[in-house]
Amino acid sequence: MAQKLQQQLREVGSKLQGQPASKDALIKLLKQAENCLSELEQSPPPSLLSAMKPCVDAIAKEDVLKHQDRDVRVLVAACICEITRITAPEAPYSDDVLRDIFDLIVSTFSGLKDANTPSFKRTVIILETLARYRSCVVMLDLECYDLINDMFQIFFNVVSDDHPNNVRASMQTIMVLIIEESEDIQENLLVTILSPLGRKRNGFTMAARKLAMNVIEHCAGKLEPSIRHFLVSSMSGDSSYLESSLDYHEVIYDLYQCVPQILFGIISFMTAELLTDKLEIRQKAVQLLGDLFALSGIPISESFKPLFSEFVKRLADRVADIRVSVIGHLKNYLMLNTSRAEAPLIIKALSDRLLDYDENVRKHVVAAICDLACHSVKVIPVDTVKTVAERLRDKSLSVKLYTMERLAELYRCYCLKRKNDLLNDDDSEWIPGRVLRCLYDKDFRSETIEFILCGSLFSHDLTIRDRVKHWIKVFSTFDKVELKALEQILLQKQRLQQEFQKYLTLRQTQQDDFPEIQKKYYGLFRMMSRMFHDAAKAEEGFQMLNQLKDPNIWKLMMILLDPGTGFCQAWSCRGELLKILGEKHSLYEFIDMLSVKCSYLLFNKELVKEIILESAEQKSTGDAKFILSCMDLLTVIASFSPHLFIGCEDDLLHLLKEDNDIIKEGITRVLAKAGGTIREQLAMTSGPVDLVLERLCLEGTRKQAKYSVHAIAAITKDDGLKSLSVLYKRLVDMLEKKTHLPSILQSLGCIAQIAMPVFETRENEIVEFISKKVLKRKNDMPATSDNSDWNERSEFCSLKMLGIKTLVKSYLPVKDASSRTGIDKLMALLRNVLAYGDISKDVESSAVDKAHMRLIAAKSVLRLSRLWDHMIPLDVFYITLRISEDVYPQFRTIFINKVHQYIKDRLLDAKYACAFLLNINQYQSPEYKEAKHFLLEVVQICQQLKLRQISMQNDVSSSVMYPESILVYLVHALAHHPSCPNINECTELSAFEPIYWRLHLFLSVLLLGDDGWQSGACSDRGKDSYAAIVAIFRSIKCSEDATDCARSRTSHALSDLGLSITKKLVPDQADVSELANTVSLPASLYKAYERDEESSRINGEQSWLSGESALAHFEALMFEDKEQILSDFNKDSILLGEKDKDDNDVPLGKMMKLLKSHGTKKKKTKTQTSTFEMKRNDEEVDVLGMVREINLDTIKAAKGMENSSQKRKLSDATNSIIPPTPKRKRSSTIHSSPSSNRDMKQHVSSVESELLRSSLPKIQSTSRRGEKKGVHSGETIINDVKNHSILEGSDKKGSGGSAKKRKVRSISGLSKCSSKKTQLNGKLVGSRIKVWWPLDKTFYEGVVHSYDPGNKKHSILYDDGDVEVLQLEREKWEHIPNGCTPKKRSKSHQSSSHEQLSLDINDDSIDYDSQGNKKPTKRSAGSNHGGRHVSGKGSQSNVRRVPKNDVYADKSKMDIKRDSEVPDAHPHSGSEIDDVNLELEVKESYSPTEIDDKTKANTLELPKESMKKIADVLHLKTMEDSDDEPLSLWKQRAGKTG
Predict the structure, then answer these.
(1) Could you tell me which of 1364, 1353, 1374, 1355 has the C-alpha nearest to residue 1463?
(2) Of 339, 1078, 1122, 1354, which is most buried, counting CB atoms within 10 Å of its CB?
């Protein structure tokens, strides 16, 4: 055999060495050679090697290796592979020949692409041989790198999923061998290996991608450095690989799946891409990581968790598209595996984005959470789903609608999974309630809500039993709001069904189109269209529907209106109806809504039947909550769709006989609602229903008795008169037995309401029994302690309460209430109960019982007022209101809530809202806030009624003041309140504080709505109410108290106080004097004066209670905040004293807000009064003036002041308190250029009227001799409205005219200068006097405006409009019978030069005696004498007014109080930061020692240079500074400017 093989090899070799005649001959020879070589084993004996040598040499000839024919080349390659196999490990050829051989072999691999070619199998053998015998490694020794790269490319191009596994495995083996044996990975080879990676690589199959990933996975250690270098270079942007078309993001995606450890080194670069500012890169990074983390079966390793956390943080990216992308990726991540450890983190992050400012993001978050919740019932917590439900109140309508749709879909999924008990009841049953709440959202149509309830919550193929169970569970979760919404939907359905049924009946019976028939049609259309959101469009739709002639449409409509139609049939009919019309029909959308609203897709007969059966089944389980929900749901359905109970009469009677109180009560309620509809069917039942109901009236519970009486009246034809008369006789006869008294009294009261003729037959017996045997009966049990718990009410008290209820119900019949008599006796009884807690003060009972009795009496008055309001005495009305002041908080809460509910339900007059105000015990207490909330709702309701009244009136000019009419009763109630002192006897302001709170609260709610009591926040409603309020107050002042004339002056004083409050709340409204109209007041409260002269005189008087000093006292109390001042000051001091974390200065705007906040945080007490003004808008703060003071040191340093090192340091106390901001901008400064003077004059002219109207409060303090007018120790008074014209007509003030006046502290050295030794009193009011101003060296004339007897002070109104409060006994003044004195200097003539300013201040060191002669006085460096300045009123702003707590006076410890002859002035309010005059110069020019020495020397010298520098500083042009500019930058720029 071997010899034969040797012979064949020699023959083939010799023939091959010769030139074959043709290609076919060559192919034949090559095939013979391949067959012979394939039979040889590896490493054959030398004889065989010698025999095959001719063949080996012949094949290696150049013309054979480079033959052009493909088949020849494949055969040559096959022969060479065999030769290589046989001679291995020795190389059969030289290196040059081997290069040509490998080139030939690689070229043959392209034939692997087509498996159908004849040479495919031979090529596979070549491939396998090359892989099996590692022949490919020789290519590395030959340095055939390009050829290797070509081979890899060929493999990636030809590999296919259709290839056998051995082909792909051989390719992988060859590639792995070459890579592993390579010393270095060539760049072009790496590019070739990475090229197939990625999901978007064109030209490569999935098999090529898998081959590359497998190769990389097997050669990870060898390839890792090169791949990492490639990725780092690509991500850093300086890679040479960028010329290739590789997408490194796609490469990373595949690498993460096969060799994630390679990516550990580039995590920081991937994080950097997430945080880069380049949007495109950030988007690609988010997309990549989202895809990576969402890969199934690949958990996130510890190394990638920081990257994942950063990826989750991209939910807060500033670009909305990126946030949306992250949301989608996180959802996909959890959808693949909901049990991932990162699930809680992801869900929390998604929930936080529900409040994203972009509505598209919010919508995607809702979609993600709902998708996850539908996918897995446990992955999303219930609280998270409830947070999603909050988007039903989103500001975007699209988000609201989308959230509702997704919640309905989620609930539908819950219902399907509920069958397998995968959910708890609480997991989903709250969703329909949230949907119902949307009915009160103006953005939702009622049609949308109804369609969700009917079609989206439950699957159409859901069984009736399952649907019933869900409805019962859902109904048990409804609160009052949700239940009311459901009732409103059912009410609309009921009305629409009734009207549409009338229309269909009319259409069937009346075929002719007569005008009267058409008129009826239009009337019905108008009625039905009101049930739709867009009534006009709905009416048009009904008219178009009326024109349709297709009988199938009307037949389907009749089926939908049939209450017996099942759910599946109804949905089928609806679909068929819409199919007939077609989507393009103009009525398609309208019929889509109408078919839902008029059909029984929500509740129908089969559902009601199933609820009744379910109740019977659950009776045995004892699930009281489930049974109660069944009964409540049946009651609601019976109220609006009683015909659904037709056919269920036997079932109802069976349940009524059950021994279950909940079921009995529920069925009696159902019969009371639906009894009239199923009356005839009940008469044919197997048992007498009325007998069962009568027994419940006699022996059942109170509620059973109540509903049984109504049920008897409903199921009998004569409204129950016959049946109730029999029952009534039995009830009255059983009174004396005193058994089942609660039920009997309850039944008697209900009979009185329903059948008054029956009740009147034995009314006297009932009244006598209740009065003598119940109310006047003494309690056998001893009275408990007054401190008993509210719930410890005795049974005897409960019986008394039932007796009162029975009597009250007898005066609240369903009809003919006006024919009832004897209401006065009932009112007398209620009066006693309200006053004594029982029918008389002689009856003894516990405090708790008395409280309950008073409460039931008050509630009785509320109920009676609906029909008998005109018969309720005024004292009973007031006692009822004062019930809200009871000591028991439960008592107050129940009563207040009852009043609120009755007013909301339009069952009670709004005047009872006064009870909310009487419940207030302290300003800003919880009761105060609750009262404000209730008042806002009541005023809103009254406004709606007011608009309705106006629209219904023919005479538009007639006065309608329904909301404001509450004020009439409020003033009268406050004036008659026991805590209200007599205005003529009491002058203590503290006694009137509660009255002020109540008046202020009501007026602020009425005028400003929910904007609070901030002045300047007036709404349009407040403007409309202003005239009515003023008219009411004026009318009260023109009237006399009808019940107690002695209280008239108190009512007038409260009216004055109310007018003052009104003007402060709405300062921009018309003057009171311009409103001449009055309104008619209730005759029971007020009556007109008998003489017009008396009315005019009283109306012209102004009460001291409305004076500025009183208002300042009240307003100061409203700003008290004792607990937060210290903490707020410390906190703000830290914020102002330190820099932020980034070492940046605190922005100027932020500092202004902190400083401004102290204007309302300043503590005020009763013993000290201060300047007060309502809060203003931010733009009214003099930011520049404040900054000039704050940065004065910096500005002076920039100017190079030499004495800067000698500036006085603030004391610790002062440094800890940040000065508050001014409430007004300064109208001028110390010195200005002519152009700036013109600007300031224009500014003063524009704002002066506003500043005068602000009505700054008058602060009571002592004025001293030598005090500068306009800067005196007391506050300047802005006159009442009646003096407004005088103020506005006076000469315009100069620099200080429009600035807020401040008190200055008491100083020493002021001598008494009173020239009048006679006792002064109020007789001077109205007289003209002149007051000596020593520093101005002249008298100024004025009129004594008012007199305060408590402080013995007169208010002087000067001719130029200034007002001053003085103790005239301590002043020098003269009475003016007639004549005139020199007028004060005009503001326009004030000096503006620095020299004049310095001179004026130096002259201030001169004082005068009582005769006006000069004398030396003791000067204080920090107080500026506190007196009238030498520059007079014309230069008020030229001198700094120093507060009592002046730091320099405190530092030097000057004995001001000891030396002063008058009490110390009160400290400042929080608005004195914008005065930069004398205090600044003292601060900058003198050290503490120098100031103290100069104080002791009673002299103060201010150099002109300092005054000039102050003027320069205060006139820096900084009007363009930004509020948000950092303080350091402002200082730097201000220094340069200085």
Answers:
(1) 1353
(2) 1354
Q: Are 1231 and 1253 in contact (CB under 8 A)?
A: no
Q: Phi and psi of 153, rounded to 5°?
A: -60, -40
Give 1373's contacts (C-beta < 8 A, 6+ positions apart): 1314, 1315, 1316, 1329, 1330, 1331, 1332
1168 DSSP 8-state letter: B
Burial of 955 from C-beta contacts in 10 A (0-12 / 13-18 / 19+): exposed
Cis peptide before 89 (omega within 30 of 0): yes
* CA–CA distance, 197 with 1537 (Å, rounded to integer): 66
CA–CA gap between residue 1452 and residue 1434 (Å, rounded): 31
Do residues 1371 and 1313 touch, judged by C-beta distance below 8 A?
yes
> How far apart, in whole angstroms, are the C-alpha atoms of residue 1426 and residue 1459?
14
Q: How far is CA 1028 from CA 103, 218, 1003, in A?
A: 107, 91, 12
Q: How far apart are CA 1364 and CA 623, in angstroms?
A: 79
Instruction: Say which amino acid occupies 1512.
Output: D
Q: Which residue has the tokens 């949307």?
A: 438
Cα separation, 232 vs 980, in Å, equals 84
Q: What mean pLDDT, rounded, does the chain reach?
A: 74
Residue type, position 684, single letter: M
Q: Where are the alpha helices (DSSP H) in 1175-1275?
A: 1183-1190, 1192-1198, 1212-1215, 1234-1253
Which residue type does 450 have? Answer: E
Task: Give the amino acid at 942.
Answer: C
Percentage of the chain beyond pLDDT 70 is 70
Nearest to 446 by CA among 542, 530, 388, 568: 530
Bridge partners, 1347 (sequence order): 1354
Are the C-beta atoms of 708 and 669 separated by less than 8 Å?
no
User: What mean pLDDT is predicted for residues 246-271?
Assistant: 88
Q: What are 346-369's pLDDT values in tens digits?
A: 999 999 999 999 999 999 999 999
Highest-confidence segment of 297-306, 894-903, 1227-1236:
894-903
Q: Which amino acid is at 341?
A: A
Neighbours of 1407 (CB within 10 A): 23
882-925 pLDDT tens trace: 888 877 888 888 999 999 999 988 889 989 999 988 888 777 77
DSSP 980-1042: PPPTTT---GGGGHHHHHHHHHHHHHHHHGGGTT-TT---HHHHHHHHHHHHHHHHHHTEEES
d(CA 47, CA 9): 11
Neighbours of 495 (CB within 10 A): 15
H helix count then E strand count, the chain: 69, 9
Torsion of CA 200, 206, 207, 212, to 10 degrees: 40
Cα–Cα distance measured from residue 262 to residue 270, given in angstroms and rounded to the nearest whole number: 13
Largest CA distance in the chain: 164
The CA distance from 550 to 533, in Å, is: 27
Residue 823 has pLDDT above 60, yes or no: yes
Neighbours of 1319 (CB within 10 A): 7
Q: How far apart are the first and last CA of the chain?
A: 119
Kindly report the pTM of this predicted structure: 0.66
Helix H or strand E segment including 1356: strand 1353-1358
Residue appearing with tokens 């340091």: 1209
Token pair 């990373």 is at which residue? 252
1497: number of Cβ within 10 Å = 11
Q: Where are the alpha helices (DSSP H) in 353-463?
A: 359-375, 382-389, 397-417, 431-437, 446-451
Structural contact between residues 1169 and 1259, judged by C-beta atoms closer than 8 angstroms: yes
